[in-house]
Automatic annotation (TrEMBL):
Entries under Gene3D superfamilies matching the protein: 2.60.120.200
Alphabetized SUPFAM superfamilies for the sequence: Concanavalin A-like lectins/glucanases (SSF49899)
Coiled-coil stretches noted in the UniProt entry, renumbered to this chain: none
Full protein name: DUF1349 domain-containing protein
Source organism: Cutaneotrichosporon cavernicola
Length: 207
């Protein structure tokens, strides 16, 4: 499904950002991107068999052959369970992956990855942040080879923790941003210090 034609969202250093599947709500100013998630929005195909929920609004651009996309991410205001700013790659509704800064049902926050390479989603939590340092973090999603993607997260934007490497089939990938609020009334996901650059060459040395 292609959304109706709307003007692209412009962020310095990135190609023009266009909506995938449906048009969402976005604000961009001075290199800061804010995506507003509607209530009860997510992008997941439950491996336990619940109906797929694919009603969030990805915003992105054609993925280069190799790249690294990173941003400092946060949620403005209060958060409900699973509210998150997300870096995402997608080909269609059954081939995609997302790296989230997510709030768990117990109130902790940290990086979460979800990979969907066909029928259902593979969901994994990496770690949680201390409560006095859990209002933001940096996420980085990279494509290091054809079909091979890597997720990193950082507490300070300098040292990058290795989170996950995975392969997904197909070509014509897009990469970008998403906001989700699966159990709540919606949220405002904030992305700043957004950078598009070369893929990392050493995936596990913190660089």
């Amino acid at each position: 499904m292609t959304p109706p034609s709307v003007p692209p969202v412009l962020i310095p250093g990135l190609p023009p950002l266009e909506w995938g599947f449906r048009t969402g709500r976005a604000f961009a100013d001075a290199g800061v991107l804010v995506l507003l998630a509607y209530a009860s929005t997510d992008w997941v195909i439950d491996p336990l068999g619940s109906p797929p929920v694919l009603n969030a609004c990805p915003l992105g651009f054609a993925a280069p052959a190799t790249f690294s996309l990173s941003a400092r991410v946060s949620v403005t205001g209060s958060r409900t369970a699973f509210d998150a700013p997300v870096l995402m790659v997608w080909r269609d509704e059954t081939h995609w992956a997302k790296l989230c800064f997510e709030r768990t049902p117990t109130g902790e926050v940290g990086p979460v990855t979800v990979v969907n390479n066909g029928a259902t989603s593979d969901d994994a939590n990496a770690y949680t942040l201390p409560q006095d340092k859990d209002d933001h973090m940096w996420l980085r999603l990279s494509r290091v080879a054809e079909g091979t993607f890597v997720c990193h997260a950082s507490r300070d934007g300098k040292w990058w923790d290795f989170v996950r490497i995975f392969r997904v089939s197909g070509s014509d990938w897009r990469v970008g941003f998403l906001a989700q609020s699966p159990t709540g009334p919606g949220c405002a996901a904030r992305f700043e210090d957004i950078r598009l650059g070369a893929a990392p060459t050493n995936l596990r040395d913190g660089s």
